[in-house]
Amino acid sequence: MKKTKKESFIQGVLALMFSQIIIKILGLVYSMYLTNRNGFGDSGNAIYMGGYQIYALLLTLSSIGVPNAISKLIAERLAKGDKKGADRVFKIAFATFAVIGFTGTLILFLGARVIATYWLAIPECEYTLIALSPAIFFVSISSVIRGYFNGIQKISNTARSQTFEQIFKTTLTIIFVEIVAMITTTNTTLMAAGANLATTCATFLSFTYIFALCQKNRKLDRVEIANATYVGEKESVKSIVKKILAVSIPMSISSLLSSINKNIDSATVVRILKPLLGEKVAKARYGILSSKIDILTSMPLAFNIAFATALVPAISAARVKGDIKTINKRLSFSMLVTILIGLPCTVGMFMYANQILELLFPNASSGGTLLAISAFTIIFTVLAQTINGALQGLGKVRVPAIALGCGVIVKLFTNILLIPIEGIYENGAAIGSVLCHIVSFTIVYNVLKNTVKLDFSLFKMMLKPIFATLIMAVVSYAFYILCIKVGMYGSLATIIGIVVAVVVYGFMIIILKILSKDDILALPKGEKIYYILNKLKIYA
Question: Has residue 414 been placed in a domain?
Fold first, then answer.
């Protein structure tokens, strides 16, 4: 809708990827702070994350799926030249989700005590839920604005707003928790509530920023849109709301099931372990799973979520135009990069599970086995994430929800069966998550394969990345063992091992020519990169 030049697909991907990396790093920073903070630790994480998972569940109902749905509908109208229709979609979506978001806020605020006591079995979560309740409203309407920017292929605006939100959240979390700790002499329950109040304040500040940006952007288009005419008949409000919900609900269901997946742990781990290990130990073990493990295994998603987000409007627009070549090109490139991201992260986190926890959480480093098992969710999650973006862009918005639904059912039964077993306990929840994502990936991949013709070379897409990852693992761990044998401090040896892994893996990608000439040229400064590689005789 804006007259300025649109971002290219890869520019949008990189902007969002950079944003997500910063978000995940900052998320790790405040997680490290809370976990290592005297008076908080794993028990505080249980209260903090228990409330946060319920918030995330209601947030999913009111907003998650909205950015992709709005971006898809706007991109399709702009592909037809219907600027006025695209603008109407935005206005109606904004009003609709303002109402939905406000309803979600009321439910969380009024139901906090019941949810904390009967669903979570952690009564201390009541204050965290109350503190989080206003955030649902602000995130809901912010999601519509982000969908608008994604639809007009200005993804960098979405990326900046998300980055600012996480900066606010990290800073305010530390400030609020320290203030509460001083006032209450480290009351864990109130410190957790203060941490979640920081989330609410951050969402408000982020909304203020992106709303101002949206108003500025739309002001440039106001005259053009006012003078434009609808392409086809003007749709009624009821018709547009139906279309928005028809797209956003299936997309939201996928995210809802992902949230339910996490809430299965909040509903089962403490409840099952409490009579076996005692309330204090049960809460601490859930705190490990829901905080440290969750944030570490979700780190690689920061690199990959950009492709899933950018694929929706890109493929939607290409589908409207009947541009099959662009669909295949975007999808094949995204799948390859996803594999290149997921494999080394899975193997690296499995290999260095205990060392990573000792490095990041020296005051509460337990959970190595949990992390090692959970690492296997990474590769299946990132692949499903990219495929889901493609399927949504192709109009198959229900498939990701159905696939994840099947996975969630598997996880629920796995948790119930394995957690009570002595020696397995909370590791059963990690196993359940792995099985959940394997099931989900298998379903969405087969649907995608039957929908479009994938340019999928087994040698390029699987065998080469696997070989590169194995070489990375062997060399990296050899360096780590060598460092330990010469008496180097454990944390320093871990850092050296990880750095070596990154360098070796990057080197193997180049040597094995996993990225083709076209792949390299698609990157920013791709021509210069290819020129250098050509001069080095790596690419002829």
Answer: yes
Same-domain check for residues 364 and 467: no
Per DSSP, the chain holds a count of helices (H) and strands (E) of 23, 0
Listed range (83-97, 127-141, 171-185, 201-215) with the worst mean pLDDT: 83-97
CA distance 82 to 89: 11
- At 531 the three-state DSSP class reads helix
277 torsion bin: left (phi>0), alpha (psi -120 to 50), beta (else): alpha
How many whole angstroms separate alpha carbon 114 and alpha carbon 520? 54
Q: Tell me which residue of 77, 33, 482 sits closest to 292, measured CA to CA.
A: 33
The residue among 429, 533, 471 whose CA lies nearest residue 53 is 429
Asked if the structure places residue 263 within a domain, the reply is yes
- Domain carrying residue 140: 9-456
Q: Which two tokens stand for residue 495?
A: 């850092």
2 is a domain residue: no
pLDDT (0 to 100) of residue 392: 77
pTM of the model: 0.71
Q: How many domains does the chain have?
A: 2
d(C-alpha 94, C-alpha 532), whole Å: 48
Pair 432, 495 in one domain: no
Which residues, 6+ apart, have CB-to-CB distance to 433 below 8 Å? 261, 374, 377, 411
